Amino acid sequence: MPMGVTRLVGRTDEVRTLARTLTSTRDGDGRAVFLVGEPGIGKSRLAAATRDLASATGTRVLHGRCGAVGPAIPLRPLREALLSVTAVLPPADLAVLGPYRSALARLVPDWAVGDPPGPQPSDHDLLALAEGVLRLTGLAGRDRGCLLVLEDLHDADDPTLAVLDYLVDNVGRQPTTLLGTLRADAGPALDLVRAAARRGACRLVPLGPLDPDDLRRLAGVRLDTHPDELPQPAIDLLWAGSGGNPGVAEDTLGELVDAGVLRPTPTGWRVGRERVDDPAALPTLTRPVDRLAPARRELLSLGATLGPVFLVAVLCQATGRPEREVHEDLADATAARFVRPDGPEPDRYRFVHPVLGGALLARLDPAARRRLARRAADAVTVVHRGLPGPHVRTAADLWLRAGDPAAAGRLLAEAGRRAVDRGAAEEAVELLQRAGDLLADAEAAHRATVLESLINALTEAGAAGRALGHAAALGDLADRLDPRHRARLHTALAWAATTAGLAGDARRHVELARALLGPDATEPDTAPVDVVAAHLTACGGGPDRVAEAEAAARRVETVARAAGLPAVAWRADLLLGELTRPRDPAEATDHLNRAWSVAVRQPAPVWEIHSLVRLGDDDALRTGDLNRLERAHRTAARVGALHARHEAETRLALHAVLQGRFTAADLLTERVLAAATRHRSPRAARHALLLRATAAAHRGRHRAMTDALIGFRRHGGDADRYAPWTHGLIRLFAALLREDRPRALHESTRAARADRDHPTVCPLAGRHGLDLLLRTVTDTDDPPAAPADDPPGRLRWNQQFRLFAHAVRHGRAGRADEATDAVREAVRVAAPYPVAGHLGLRLVGEAALTDGWGEPVEWLRAAEDHFHRTDVPAVAAACRSLLRRAGSRPLQRRAGVEEIPGVLRAAGVTPREYEVLLLLAGRLSNREIADRLHLSARTVEKHVASLITKTGQPDRIAVGRLAATGAPPGAAAQV
């Protein structure tokens, strides 16, 4: 296609060097410079730019080129150069040459005097000729400098090189720059200039490839577009095809455009991706493949079979050739821009561009490609024993291309199992589905093993609904499997249903698994299904469910440890960590640490991630520290363990609610709900809606709370099982934030009754904390005492309320100092929980005000400020009412109050009084202030008197000074 004229791109340093050389030449200092590089590298283009630069500055230019086409013409570049100057030099100037004019007649016949010279000059003639050329350049460059350009010197004949050798050594005597170009191929011309450079007679300027940025600029010039608008895949192809050689890059660019790989669109140049890897569309890139020797082509074809990156060790194994020979061939292939080293390791190579590997394989028939794939698969298996890491997938792909789908399927199944173990759930699902397809005709046992792994992978991917859809496949295999294998599959399906909250499906598969194992099964035989049944019991209803599930989990854990069943022991310890926390958080932590230890010893990264999620949640409950839980969440997201990630997000969302970070809580909750909807997981959906209701309650948004609880029930939420949470952590909180004390007491009673009838594994639902505080401040005659030994009460969320309750009891007993200390400690413990902490201050502030102890005004002001800022008006109003009861003016909440400095606002200064204060700074009279504020002078006088009283200043002048600082001396003490 026609493209724009190419200007010189890159070569900034080289142009600068040549420009300085021309300047020196005009000052009479002659020099010789040679541009050396491969074909197409830009020698002629740089020489042309130098000629243009010389012409622009008035320097005389002589130009000649050696020719490789047609009959050889002796001294051709010198003839061309001198002919270009004959038209501009008058005969009188030529007379200055004296006897050298006759020598030059060999190049310019018109200058001959007497008989013309013979066809072959003698050495004496060449010496005279060289001196004549040198003097002629000096004559041409008199007062202006001369540039003599001799191109393609690698094609020069011997006489030309003889003259050149003389010119290089003597050009310094003339105002002449000798600029030569030649290839970097071995030959007499290169030998000559290298020898001259070594003795300091000339300068050698090697031209290397353009860098990718310059290559992009070159393409932009050719396509008449801004370089940044060119797509990166096109630049990658240019680099692969040219290695930075601008001449080759231009040919490749034209080919890309002509083949439709790079095409113009209304929005700029775009790559047609369907053509990028088509070798037939890019002959410039792939043509060198046809010139490869057979042995080297086979070697590179094996490399292409292995993939974009291949190892020397595998090539040696596949070909049986010594490592030294293989390295030599790869070094040559690197020089020819077929391959390049991949990183610092000398054993790794990759093709410069995938299209080159494709071109090699495209030249083979299908049978030959299969044979290469088989050799490569065997070699990979030998070199990488056990096929660790990605090598198992590489081998599977090679066996598939070798025509052995069964071998490929077995390896993909192994890769899928490994992916499940490390937590890469979605990758595992894709691998195992492919394995199942390839093993469709394999033995039933192989297919069942793959199916079991796929069910586990789908469960870990949070897609338990899809996992249960494979129950039909189990039916197809049932008559060809032994009962134990079928029981394992039903156990996997039961676990999938349990994680999704599908209790009916889970119970059915548990019963089927137990029936298949039969009445004579040993405890180790039934342990895998028994631990699933224990989880199922814990998720059920009834007053004894927690105790029954705990007893079952303990039995299973004992059996699993004795029988060496790490997966069962791990699941049992995770369950015990949940079940024992309401009774003994320390024991719960011990169980979670044991589960983590099992995961590390196995090793099973996905088990470790789940364990860290639970341990992180444990940290947050005990201390409020989210670091470990957040790290586990990031790890689960990074490796693709979606089930663990969603479990972490559910827990993070709850702690975000408790810590008053509602935006983060909303984001996490909606993410969990979206995943639950996508994967048809009722359990996750119920948890998300319960979290949404909790967040709404802790914000005082009653309507949103009610809507979320309705949604929770519509998704199958068990009202009895979750009653301690819904009444103790949701409705109780909502009632307190609406200042509905009777409703709060009612919800607290219902939460306590529900926890007795339907024990919960959530120890935050009120019985151990908020319920105690509420009943302590309400029952003034006989407040309940905190249990002496209540381990869940030591969880940080519960501990803040227990400390507030202790303070109230101390205060009523007349122990004011102990009461105040307890409040201070409660405030410290409540630091992560701003809503709960300020609610505690509101409740304890009222009790302190009633009983006459502590600092109720300070506590109520802090609570009022928080609930005003967070838009919980009922509590804020109650605090203001209590402040008025205490004889302290509440902070003003009218428009403009936020502009009043905090200390003045705390002193009770109103917005209008603050306006008066600002004008007092200007020493205005009451009348002047009244006129500006459209008030009466009497009203201004009242405001000034009020300001003097509130700020404790002696007079109006002192009050006026406060306008600059906003803080009167001792104001803090007065407030």
UniProtKB/TrEMBL annotation:
Q: Which PROSITE patterns match?
A: HTH_LUXR_2
Give an example GO molecular function: adenylate cyclase activity
- InterPro entries from the UniProt entry: AAA_16 (IPR041664), P-loop_NTPase (IPR027417), Sig_transdc_resp-reg_C-effctor (IPR016032), Tscrpt_reg_LuxR_C (IPR000792), WH-like_DNA-bd_sf (IPR036388)
Q: Which SMART domains match?
A: HTH_LUXR
Which biological process, per GO, is one annotated for this protein? regulation of DNA-templated transcription
Keywords on this record? Answer: ATP-binding, Nucleotide-binding
What the entry lists under Pfam families is as follows:
AAA_16, GerE
An annotated GO cellular component: cytoplasm
Q: Where does the HTH luxR-type domain lie?
A: 902-967
Q: What is this protein called?
A: Regulatory protein, luxR family
According to its UniProt entry, this protein's organism is: Micromonospora echinospora (Micromonospora purpurea)
